[in-house]
Structures are given as C-alpha cells and as structure tokens.
Specification:
The protein has about 200 residues and is mainly alpha-helical. It has eleven helices and two strands, in the order ααααααααββααα. Strand 1 and strand 2 (about 160-165) form a beta hairpin.
Length: about 200
C-alpha cells in the first residue's frame, strides 16, 4: 500500500527512490520463495492491498525487455506475467473509473503502463476527460514532474531541478489542450509542491 504514497524524490545523487527500494524488497522476498508459489503469493499481496504502483512496476519488469536481457532475474513464467498484467490492468481501469487514479502521484507511469498493455485509445481518452477540468490538468502535469539531481565535483550537496518530458505528455494530450484548461486554473490553489 505504501509505495503509492512514497515520494518520487531521492535523497541524493546516488540514492534510489523509496519506491524502488520497496520494489527490491518485494523482489527478493519473491525470489527466495518457491517458484511454484510466487504468482499466488504476489497475487494475494496485490489483492490484499490498495496500492497500484508497486504491483504495476513489478509486473512491467516481468513482461518487458528485461525478460530477454536478464532471464535469471525473472520471477514469473510468461503465462503468469500475462495473467498478472491483466490483473494490474484491471486495477488501473477501475481506479480510473472511481477517480482514484487521478490522485496517484505515479499517474504518468501508470498511464504509460496502461498504454503499453492495452494500446493508446483507453488511457488517452481517460486523460482527455481528466484534463477538461483545470484541477485534472494540474494533477496530470504534476505527476509528470521528474526530479533531476546534479552536483559538481567539489560541491557538498547536489541540487534538484524538476523537469517534464513533453514528448511523454504529448503522447496523451496536446499542450494546447492542457494550456486551455490551465488558463482557467486559480494558481492560488496550488500547493508548494505543485508550484515547482
């Protein structure tokens, strides 16, 4: 459950994001369990939680290019990964219908997984409906913010800049559509986090 609420930001230049640390813990617990029970253990954990990000992240790695690059790191058979992908896809769709998806801090990643797994029509349509309202457009853009840390050789600490991947954003909705919606937005309603 907690991975959806963990911050995206890392502590420093060489540190892992908190959600990636959580995923590594899940990975090693599953890796140490009997191969014939992994899918059922994972499925039970997913069904017993409300979280989306960590299960989608794990299943995405199991069904992506990593299957070919690192076959020893794979936890599930192709059939099991496909079943788990459908289960995660169903969870994303239900969260989209209930409104829960819009408030997920990892919205852009979840939308990207939805797009990879089901094609672009459903998630793109969902985003178009979301950004009709200024608050939805702001939530969508906020989820697309990525922290980038940099520091010089003699710096005592790194500085973090927040950036957006415009190509990724435009794969769901046009910038002009977002701008039209955001023009109606009262910026006084933005939190300090959203103002970056």
């Amino acid at each position: 459950d907690i991975a959806d609420d963990l911050p995206k930001q890392k502590g420093g230049m060489f540190e892992l994001a908190p959600a990636i640390r959580a995923m590594r813990i899940v990975y090693w617990i599953l890796k140490q369990s009997d191969a014939s029970q992994r899918r059922d253990l994972f499925r039970a954990a997913v069904r017993g939680s409300r979280g989306m990000y960590l299960p989608v992240l794990r299943v995405d790695e199991e069904s992506g290019e990593d299957r070919k690059r690192e076959p020893d790191a794979i936890l599930f058979t192709e059939e099991e990964a496909s079943e788990l992908k459908m289960e995660c896809l169903d969870r994303i769709r239900k969260a989209g219908q209930s409104g829960e998806l819009a408030s997920n801090p990892h919205l852009i990643y979840l939308l990207s997984a939805w797009k990879r797994w089901a094609g672009s029509e459903e998630p793109t349509s969902w985003v178009h409906n979301l950004v009709k309202e200024p608050e939805g457009a702001a939530a969508f853009l906020n989820s697309a913010m990525i922290p980038v840390s940099a520091g010089g050789l003699y710096d005592y600490y790194s500085t973090t800049t927040w950036v957006m991947d415009l190509k990724l954003i435009e794969s769901f909705v046009s910038i002009s559509e977002l701008t039209a919606s955001l023009d109606k937005f009262d910026t006084a309603l933005l939190s300090a986090e959203q103002r970056r």
